[in-house]
């Protein structure tokens, strides 16, 4: 963190219980001065506990009108994102196929989707996405995750 103001906001957030951090961030994002800090923290928060339960909250945060969106990804993730093919095949475990229409989080690794299928209790949906529609790529936690449908 480069400035005392952003440091103070983030120190406050660290005292919030993890399940409530995204909501805290949404209420206080306007206080973060440095756009790179906004995106870096948002990416970390997503990987810490982003979930489809709060998908609309996350979508709003991802659509923030702030420059330097690429900072949501770590340097290695940006490199991997740049190297994605023009069209990617992505997978998602769903309870009902219609969930796939609005899902923002997908994996490029079928084995990850199989893990989330809870031993085949959930169906795996396969979709193709244009690279230009992939907002972010995360390889943290070994999930090969992309964010789309924003």
Structure description:
The protein has 150 residues and is α+β, with helices and mostly antiparallel strands. It has helices at 4-13, 21-28, 35-49, 55-62, 75-82, 110-116, and strands spanning 87-94, 105-107, 123-130, 136-138, 145-147. The strands form two sheets. It has a three-stranded antiparallel β-sheet with strand order 2-5-4. Strands 1-3 form a two-stranded antiparallel sheet. It is globular and about 45 Å long.
Could you give the topology of this structure?
Layout: H1 4-13, H2 21-28, H3 35-49, H4 55-62, H5 75-82, E1 87-94, E2 105-107, H6 110-116, E3 123-130, E4 136-138, E5 145-147
Antiparallel strand pairs: 1-3, 2-5, 4-5
* Oligomeric organization of the protein chains: single chain
Mean pLDDT: 94
What is the SS-derived class? alpha+beta
The H/E string reads HHHHHEEHEEE
What count of structural domains? 2
**Which residues sit in consecutive blocks of at least 5 with pLDDT less than 50?**
none
Rg, Cα atoms, Å: 16 Å
Measured by DSSP, the beta-strand proportion falls in 15-25%
N-to-C terminal Cα separation, in Å? 27 Å
Total E-strand runs: 5
Helix percent band: 25-40%
Keywords, separated by commas or semicolons:
single chain; 150 residues; alpha+beta; 2 domains; two-stranded antiparallel ribbon; 5 strands; globular
């Amino acid at each position: 963190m480069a400035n005392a103001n952003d440091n103070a906001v983030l120190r406050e957030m660290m005292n919030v219980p993890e399940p409530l951090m995204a909501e805290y961030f949404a209420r206080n994002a306007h206080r973060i001065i440095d756009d790179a800090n906004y995106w870096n923290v948002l990416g970390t928060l997503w990987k810490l506990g982003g979930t489809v339960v709060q998908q609309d909250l996350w979508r709003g945060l991802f659509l923030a009108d702030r420059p330097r969106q690429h900072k949501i990804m770590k340097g290695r993730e940006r490199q991997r994102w740049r190297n994605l093919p023009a069209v990617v095949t992505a997978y998602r475990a769903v309870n009902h196929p219609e969930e796939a229409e609005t899902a923002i989080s997908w994996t490029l690794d079928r084995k990850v989707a199989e893990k989330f299928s809870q031993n085949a209790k959930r169906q795996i949906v396969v979709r193709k996405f244009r690279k230009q529609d992939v907002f972010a790529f995360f390889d943290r936690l070994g999930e090969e995750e992309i964010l789309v449908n924003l």
